[in-house]
Amino acid sequence: MNILVDTSIWSLALRRKPPQKTKQDDPNVLELAELIDEGRAVLIGPVRQEILSGISSPSQFSLLKERLRAFDHRPLKTEDYEMAAEFFTKCRKKGIQGSHIDFLICAAARNHSMAIFTSDQDFYNYSRILKIELHQPRAFL
After folding, report:
1. What are phi and psi for residue 95, nearest 5 degrees?
2. Which helix (H) or strand (E) segment is 84 a member of?
3. What tens digit of pLDDT does each residue of 9-52 get?
4. Is residue 22 classed as helix, strand or coil in its secondary structure?
5. pTM across the whole model
6. How far apart are CA 71 and CA 61, in angstroms?
7. Are strands 115-117 and 41-43 parallel, antiparallel or unpaired?
8. Domains of the chain listed by start with CATH number
9. How far is it, in rounded angstroms, from Cα 131 to Cα 110?
């Protein structure tokens, strides 16, 4: 199964200065490396945009943009946007708020039979309401 990798995971892996532990010790970063090696890491346009947003150095932006082009890109369809709107409304009715991009990630994963790999706790809240699958690093299994 392919895995839609959320911005939160990419950010952990691409961070210049890791927090307390090194990036090589982070189970999420290790899992992303495994998914990349297996050819299972998938990007969608909105995640690509989030990853690239805020990079102020033109050379770093260009380098990252080129490196991200190596990853499978799943084009979004009208149905993905429609389902994202349904997900937004469904969660809001249950008192769970989220961003439009988060719900687009949920819809794309569901419509394209992918699990979502994220460290964003909001997705765990969404998964209680929506029928989405969250990918866990194998080190935790």
Report:
1. 85, 15
2. helix 78-93
3. 999 998 766 555 555 678 999 999 999 999 999 999 999 999 99
4. coil
5. 0.90
6. 16
7. unpaired
8. 3-140 (3.40.50.1010)
9. 8
As given in the structure block, the two tokens for residue 81 are: 């946007």
Nearest to 134 by CA among 118, 110, 111: 118
Task: Give the span between the Cα atoms of 3 and 117, in whole angstroms.
Answer: 6
| DSSP helix/strand/coil, 3 | strand
**Residues written for the chain:** 141
Task: Output the 3-class SS for 90-134.
Answer: HHHHCCCCCCHHHHHHHHHHHHCCCEEECCCCHHHHHHHHCCCCE
How many other CB atoms are there within 10 angstroms of residue 27's CB atom? 13
Q: Would you list the DSSP string of 35-80?
A: HHHTT-EEE-HHHHHHHHTT---HHHHHHHHHHHTTSEE----HHH
Contact status, residue 117 vs residue 98, Cβ threshold 8 Å: no
Judging by DSSP bridges, how do beta strands 72-73 and 3-5 pair with one another?
unpaired
